[in-house]
Amino acid sequence: MTNSPQVQMADVGEMYLVHTMLRREFSLLPDLIRGAGRDPNRRARIGAHAQLVFQILHAHHESEDLVLWPLLLDRAGAAATEVVTVMEEQHRAIAAAHNEAVHRLAYWRRFGRDGERFATLLDELVQVLTEHTALEEKAMLPLAEKYITAAEWAQIGQHGMDTFQKRFLPLAFGMLMYEGDPAVMRRTLANVPLPARLLMPAIAPRAFSRHARRLYGTATPPKITA
Fold first, then answer.
1. Nearest-CA neighbor of 122 among 49, 174, 222?
2. Going by C-beta distance under 8 Å and a sequence separation of 6 or more, which residues neighbour residue 16?
3. Once rounded to an integer, what is the mean pLDDT over residues 16-20?
4. What are the C-alpha distances in Å from 120 to residues 26, 30, 107, 167?
5. Is the pTM of this model over 0.70?
6. What is the distance between the alpha carbons of residues 56 and 176, in angstroms, rounded to a whole number?
7. Where in the chain are the domains?
8. Helix crossing, 194-216 with 40-63: angle to 10°?
9. Within 13 Å of residue 200, how many CA atoms lie on the same side as its CB?
10. How confident is the model at residue 191 (pLDDT cuts 50, 70, 90)?
């Protein structure tokens, strides 16, 4: 399938929002772990946040594995074969690091031990994730714009939303909005049900602001795009 006047193609702008948010939150996690000390309440708060961003990463990559890669391989042929192979290899590497991080999170959150080892593992995960998202933006998203329809692209976002408890959606959207291009965010919200479309611009930034103050001590944590 190629771009044509009759078929609306994917607007990939929201993928940049997701990548920026993931790089920021994962980049900030190691210092949170290192600075938590022996306070179990602090560990619980950081642990809940880490669990959320782990879930977002897993849902994001799962939707690509299930929806995006098969469509590109079917439609883009040789142009997609090599880069999809690399994407899948990187997903496996990230998944292995992610699974180890989830395991260490439970232990650290409960006992407060091996924090430096856990933080170092997250440092390594950040490096792999940064390399992966950069390559995806350079090599994969242009193919998606050409070969994936808007309706198919919406399936990717819907899969991620379907994995969340509804109470976390305002925070997740607020995390996206914090550094997100407002125009891209408006287009993204245009695809969600009307109540959420009307409420999210107001409640999502407030949800992230409250969360950031409790977690980082400020409503304006460092931006990855700064």
1. 49
2. 137, 181, 184
3. 96
4. 12, 7, 15, 31
5. yes
6. 11
7. 13-163
8. 140
9. 27
10. confident
| Among 3, 6, 1, 16, residue whose Cα is nearest residue 188 | 16
Q: Which residues pair with 9 in a beta bridge?
A: 149
Instruction: State residue 94 phi and psi, 5-degree precision.
Output: -65, -40
Q: Report d(CA 114, CA 104) in Å as an integer.
A: 8
Find tokens 């107001």 and name the residue. Answer: 202
Contact 153, 10 (CB under 8 A): yes
- 155 Cβ contact list (under 8 Å, min separation 6): 63, 67
pLDDT of residue 196: 84
How far, in Å, CA of 161 to CA of 156, rounded?
9
3-state secondary structure 15-62: HHHHHHHHHHHHHHHHHHHHCCCCCHHHHHHHHHHHHHHHHHHHHHHH
Q: Which token pair is 34?
A: 């290192």
DSSP 115-176: HHHHHHHHHHHHHHHHHHHHHIIIIIHHHHHHH-BHHHHHHHHHHHHHTS-GGGHHHHHHHH
132, 162 in Cβ contact below 8 A? no
Q: Of the CATH numbers 3.90.1010.10, 1.10.275.10, 1.20.120.520, 3.40.50.720, which one belongs to the domain with range 13-163?
A: 1.20.120.520
- 29-88 residue pLDDT tens: 999 999 998 899 999 999 999 999 999 999 999 999 999 999 999 999 999 999 999 999
